[in-house]
């Protein structure tokens, strides 16, 4: 399936922004459906079965958070939040409510399109697990757990490897601290966010060219992390 066949639902009450988004997405070959209210959004999401949904949080009838939870009752479609709200609590609430990622207004069109592609890629590929990951100078085989860098084999501890795999399944989308800790350490967590940060630091030393300025394992302050993988 090519990108040209994917349908995107834009949930946004600002008419000008909606038409900018439509033009941007149509130029990339996506088909676009629009909704200006939460109520309309749920109707369009059921009727059109979009491949990705962009949701503004500030809507005239109900909060965008209600749209996220409403869509999640019947669909696993990738949901990307568009919002001027910069509070970490809003982001965490949206992600815990079932959103897959978050873009803060004003956003660049490159950033937005990258998130849409990542969302679609993840939903298309969620069945088939990626076997090989490539980061700048490193190739990791998730099946054999072997990693090769420019100066030979790279060894990961079991926890580092689980952390890497958990982030890799995000396909470039944000993974929250809670999701990571549940997945890497299990329900009776043996670590906290400080422990998580130290594992992230160790992992960066193995996968980043410059661990002090990470470009692969990126922090989303107060919310979580994303792994930027070469396409
Ligand atoms: Ca709005």
Map the helices and strands.
Blueprint: E1 7-11, H1 15-27, E2 31-35, H2 38-48, E3 52-56, H3 64-72, E4 79-83, H4 88-96, E5 101-104, H5 109-125, E6 132-135, E7 138-141, E8 147-149, E9 152-154, H6 158-168, E10 175-176, H7 177-185, H8 193-207, E11 217-220, E12 224-227
Bound molecules: calcium ion (CA).
Provide a descriptive summary of the structure in words:
- The chain is an alpha/beta fold and 231 residues long.
- The protein has 2 domains: 3-124, Rossmann fold (3-Layer(aba) Sandwich), CATH 3.40.50; 132-227, Winged helix-like DNA-binding domain superfamily/Winged helix DNA-binding domain (Arc Repressor Mutant, subunit A), CATH 1.10.10.
- Helix content is 41%, strand content 21%.
- It has helices at 15-27, 38-48, 64-72, 88-96, 109-125, 158-168, 177-185, 193-207; strands spanning 7-11, 31-35, 52-56, 79-83, 101-104, 132-135, 138-141, 147-149, 152-154, 175-176, 217-220, 224-227.
- A 5-stranded parallel beta sheet has the order 2-1-3-4-5, with helices on both faces. It has a 4-stranded antiparallel beta sheet with strand order 6-7-8-9, with no helix packed on it.
- A hairpin with a 5-residue loop joins strand 7 and strand 8.
- The longest helix is centred in the middle third of the chain and has 17 residues, at 109-125.
- It starts with 6 loop residues before the first strand and ends with a strand.
- Bound molecules: calcium ion (CA).
- Calcium ion is lined by residues 13-14, 56, 58-59.
- The site of calcium ion has 5 residues, from loops.
